[in-house]
Amino acid sequence: MKFIMENKFRNKTGIIILAAGSSSRLGSPKQLLKYKESTLLKNTISQASKVSSAFIIVVTGSEAEIIEKEFNTEEILFSFNPDWQNGMSSSIIKGIEELLHFNPDCEQCILAVCDQPFVTSFVFENLIRESNKNQKGMAASAYSETLGTPVLFHKKYFQELLKLKGQEGAKKLIKKHLDDVISVPFEKGNIDIDTEDDYSQLISFDK
């Protein structure tokens, strides 16, 4: 586990990148798929790192050692989730627990995944900006007539996030508290990588 520099703990926004899945439909770790002379995970981390008001936690699980070897920085906290096979909720819980452990005064966090290739620092910053401007407890990315990741949660929802189970994710809370959600457009947010066909289309699109 690598530790975030001390001054990062004072930041009020955490970005938790969920990167623990086994990529069973793909057959190889999607986190390490080559993309833009980098990888999907490195791209997500790079964009998150541009958000000056945030620190980053990456939750790993399957192939954790291989994934973490790709990085050599103390700017990011890698946190291994031993229960990753129990579903996405376990990784969300692990990320929130680490956030509260290292920065109990954190005001909000953004949950992100590693397989949305078109995520940018602007997407993260826009969630923070719109949440603050509209005084909403959640700011969710809007694409393909749905709300999803990346999604920002005010600290008042941390305890509910810690109670998620199995495959439950952020959408459960979004649906439950729709009156406290601001939707933030994310162009191409519907594009994620789950299969070889998805990846082939991404590479073709990016050429």
TrEMBL record:
Top-rank lineage group of the source organism: Bacteria
UniProt cross-references to Pfam families, sorted A to Z: NTP_transf_3
Coiled coil location: none
Protein name: Nucleotidyltransferase family protein
Classification via CDD domains: GT_2_like_f (cd04182)
Domain MobA-like NTP transferase intervals: 16-180
Organism ancestry: Bacteria, Pseudomonadati, Bacteroidota, Flavobacteriia, Flavobacteriales
InterPro entries (UniProt xref): MobA-like_NTP_Trfase (IPR025877), Nucleotide-diphossugar_trans (IPR029044)
